[in-house]
Specification:
It contains 5 helices and 5 strands, in the order αβαββααββα. By secondary structure, the chain is α+β, with helices and mostly antiparallel strands. It has a single domain, classed as CBS-domain (Roll), CATH 3.10.580.10. The strands form 2 sheets. A 3-stranded mixed β-sheet has the order 1-2-3. α4 crosses α5. The chain is elongated and about 65 Å long.
Length: 146
């Protein structure tokens, strides 16, 4: 049984660290470090317009050098963002993340940012599901649920 994004967000919370397209990569990198996270959602008036990941920063750093940290987030962000709704399942997210080779999926409700799901959130949810199934099977086999 796959869990929905709404359930995951209820457990983990809906806080998302965001950045503006005009903020510098230096500021964005400081935010990543301060919050110990791997990606920032780039928003404009509450709408998702991009994602800036560690991978994006490394890519621009490798081509433009250290001076890139003075450039705007818009120059490095991924603008082709894959999002999901709260009714999406962890199975759907696992498939999307695997196929698209992404680790963060912003959650959108009514065109506005409502949360974010990371690959770590999906893996944790799946491990929790497997633990419940294992426990149920052990109870069934040993008869301890009767």
């Amino acid at each position: 049984m796959s869990v929905t994004v709404a359930h995951l967000l209820t457990s983990k919370g809906r806080d998302v660290v965001t950045v503006s397209r005009t903020d510098t990569l230096r500021d964005a990198t400081a935010l990543l470090g301060r919050h110990n996270i791997g990606a920032l959602v780039v928003t404009e008036d509450g709408a998702v317009i991009g994602v800036l990941s560690e991978r994006d920063i490394v890519r621009v750093l490798s081509t433009k050098g250290p001076e890139c940290f003075d450039h705007a987030v818009a120059e490095a962000m991924t603008a082709d963002v894959f999002t999901c709704g709260e009714d999406a399942s962890t199975d759907q997210l696992m498939s999307l993340m695997t196929q698209r080779r992404i680790r963060h999926v912003p959650v959108v409700r009514d065109g506005r940012l409502a949360g974010i799901i990371s690959i770590g959130d999906v893996v944790k949810s799946r491990v929790d599901e497997l633990e419940v199934a294992k426990s149920s099977l052990e109870d069934y086999v040993t008869g301890s649920s009767y």
